[in-house]
Methionyl-tRNA formyltransferase, mitochondrial
Amino acid sequence: MILRRFICYNASSTVSSIAPSPKKKPLIFLGSPQVSVSVLEALFNASNAPNSSFEVAGIVTQPPSRRDRGKKVLPSPVAQYALDKGLPSDLIFSPEKAGDEAFLSALRELQPELCITAAYGNILPTKFLKIPVHGAVNIHPSLLPLYRGAAPVQRALQDGVPETGVSLAFTVRKLDAGPVIASKRFQVDDLIKAPELLSFLFSEGSNLLIRELPSIFDGSAKSKAAPQDDSKATLAPKIAPDEAWLSFDQEAFVLHNKVRAFAGWPGTRAKVVVLDEKSGQQNVLELKIMSTRVCKDLEIQDSEQDYVTFKKGSLIFPCRGGTALEVLEVQLPGKKAINAAAFWNGLRGQKLKKL
């Protein structure tokens, strides 16, 4: 009996001597594609740190969609990652629209202090933005106010910019026009493609976000955030599938930048004619152009202007202004991508003409 009382006394005195842990601030993350996963991963890691003041209280993402060539209906990459991390499925929301009343009601119940967006893919209405105490903050892969819109990385590469960056900005109703909390700029390699650059910028944006979270939660970020200069704004509209076609009456650097920009989706395509001089047959081929570079120090003869040649492991496409595009890798419909040498060998002496 004495021993039991001693244990009970010590246990109760120990509990009373420990101060209760402060309640963590609820944070909601909004994102959908694979590039958003790196941001969610950084938030999960930071929230699990011993001195963390916040927790990931819920996920908002696009509804499940058909992938793997339309055979399966699968959750978004962000939703799948959250499930794998053990987040309860009832805390993963996938409304058709972010203004759905049932969704907004569930969001209010979570009483979020802050919402973070990263390639979510849905417009946030005013009634959504009023719910989190500290508003919503977006990771945008450009140096705002440049390239506001749905495809900032793709349009920047298409323009051949020598540098770009990532911005952390408060979300307002006007598209990507909120005050900028912080940004970071980077040089752009002239061979990097959109998927690699997009992944890099969101990874760097994650680091920027974790660094700035304390100032966002204590409110100081709002006072230091810089308003954007709308007069310097440029737009990055969504890419249309019909933009994928290459026209060789443009200069080579324009086409090379387009190949880099549209890598992944929708890709870039060109039509060529295969000429069999023995039989006189002509067949039109559709090629997906996978990898290119601008041809340097190569003189195109007048007799070669309409024809594709093969030199030093590359298909050489004559372009406007005496320039030429080196195509290093192609893909035929329904086939795997192959290098230029393998494709050229498959022609077996037939000629290749631009269309």
About this structure: The chain has two domains: 25-236, 241-354.
